[in-house]
Design brief:
Layout (H helix, E strand, L loop, with lengths): L14 H22 L6 H12 L3 E2 H8 L3 H13 L3 E5 L7 E5 L1 H22 L4 H31 L5
Antiparallel strand pairs: 1-3, 2-3
Helix pairs in contact: 1-5, 2-5
């Protein structure tokens, strides 16, 4: 199997390169469509809204972990969504130090429109792909994710046992 040190390795055939490139292109197209349809939300902010729509009441720390975002970056995105009245932050009833994040009524209505737009973007992205090929692609990507997530967890646990930071 080719690797970065192999004479047969090419960047264009690297799974990581391809996944990153596709992700970036989908995000660019989504952002273009958001602007074209006059939404004041970026693709990254949409990702935050999706996670809240799926499970409201998450903390900023939980969202940051799910989205793999640094605290300051996520704070900036949440501030922007709050200014637009798409989210609200409330103190936790059991622990006043914790603030939970919820969609507002406007946020829920906006999400219905945004999910339709995201569906259109994905339909466009996938229109030249047979359903069976798409299913295979998704299953392969899930397996890659599962494999690497497990490796990261094992390595993180080993680092903890050895007193190193993960």
């Amino acid at each position: 199997m080719p690797n970065a040190n192999s004479p047969h390795y090419t960047l264009e055939d690297s799974l990581g390169y391809l996944v990153n490139r596709v992700s970036r292109t989908i995000r660019q197209y989504l952002n273009q469509e958001l602007r074209r349809r006059n939404f004041q939300v970026t693709g990254e902010q949409f990702a935050v809204l999706v996670h809240l729509w799926r499970q409201e009441g998450q903390t900023q720390q939980e969202l940051g972990h799910e989205l793999a975002k640094e605290k300051t970056t996520l704070t900036r995105m949440l501030n922007g969504l709050e200014v637009q009245d798409l989210i609200r932050r409330e103190f936790d009833s059991r622990d006043g130090r914790i603030r939970r994040i919820y969609l507002t009524s406007k946020g829920q209505k906006t999400m219905k429109k945004l999910t339709a737009l995201a569906g259109d973007v994905l339909t466009t992205a996938q229109m030249e792909i047979a359903p069976s090929e798409l299913l295979t692609c998704k299953n392969v990507l899930r397996r890659v994710h599962q494999t690497l997530t497990l490796k990261l967890a094992v390595q993180g646990n080993q680092n903890i046992r050895e007193g190193r930071r993960a």
